[in-house]
Amino acid sequence: MADTTATNGANAGAAEDSTPSLNALAQYAKDISFENPNAPRSLTPQQNGPQISIQVNVNAKQLAETDFEVDLSLEGNAKIGSEVLFAFDLTYAGVFRVRNIPPEQLHAVIMIECPRLLFPFARQIVAEAVRNGGFPPLYIDPIDFVGLYNQRQAEMQQGAGVAQPAN
Predict the structure, then answer these.
(1) For the chain, how big is the Rg over CA atoms in Å?
(2) How many CB atoms lie within 10 A of CB 62?
(3) How far apart are CA 140 and CA 115, in angstroms?
C-alpha cells in the first residue's frame, strides 16, 4: 500500500508540474510621490469638486526564464480650475513566476493578470497618501486591464502598419 501511495503521489506531482501557474513572489513600492503644492490654502472647503485625472501604465521585464517583474504606474492629480490641489505618482511592482503558460498567451497573462493582482495594493497606497495629505481618500475605480491591453495592442498594430518613408 505504501508503494501505491508513493506512486500516486509521484504521479500527482508530475500532473501538477504541467498545470499553468502564476505566483507572486514579491510586491513592493518602487517609487511614490505625493505633492500638496498649495497647502494649506488647498485644504479649505471648496464649492466645486475637483477634476481628477489618472493615468495608468503597465511595464514588464523578464528576470529569469519563468520570472517577470511587472510595474504598475499610477499617476494623477486633482485640480480646481488651473490650481493643483494634489498630485501623486506611484510605481508599484511585483515579481511573478509564470509556469506552463502557452507562449502565445504569456504576454497577455503578464500584462493583464499581474497588474490585476497588484492593483488593489496600489489603490490602497494612493488612497492613504491622499488621506495623509489632508484630503478625503481617493479610491481609484477598478481598471479594465483587458481593455487596456487590447487598446495598447491595437495602437501597436496601427503603428506597425504605418508605412515608413524611404530614405
Answers:
(1) 22
(2) 12
(3) 14
The C-alpha cell that represents 103 in the structure block:
507562449
Instruction: For residues 156 and 158, give the distance between their C-alpha atoms in angstroms, rounded to a whole number.
Output: 5
Strand pairing of 83-99 and 51-62? Answer: unpaired
Q: Long-range contacts: 37-46, Cβ < 8 Å, 24+?
A: 37/84, 37/86, 37/87, 38/83, 38/84, 38/85, 39/133, 39/134, 42/83, 42/84, 42/85, 42/86, 43/134, 43/135, 46/80, 46/85
pLDDT of residue 16: 54
Give the model's pLDDT for residue 2. Answer: 47
Distance of CA 53 to the CA centre of its chain: 17
C-alpha cell at 85: 490641489
Given a contact cutoff of 8 angstroms between Cβ atoms, the answer to whether 36 and 42 are in contact is yes
The pTM score is: 0.81
Residues of the chain predicted below pLDDT 50? 1-10, 12-15, 163-167
Amino acid at 4: T
The SS3 call for residue 138 is coil
Domains of the chain: 19-155 (3.10.420.10)
CA 166 to chain CA centroid, Å, is: 39
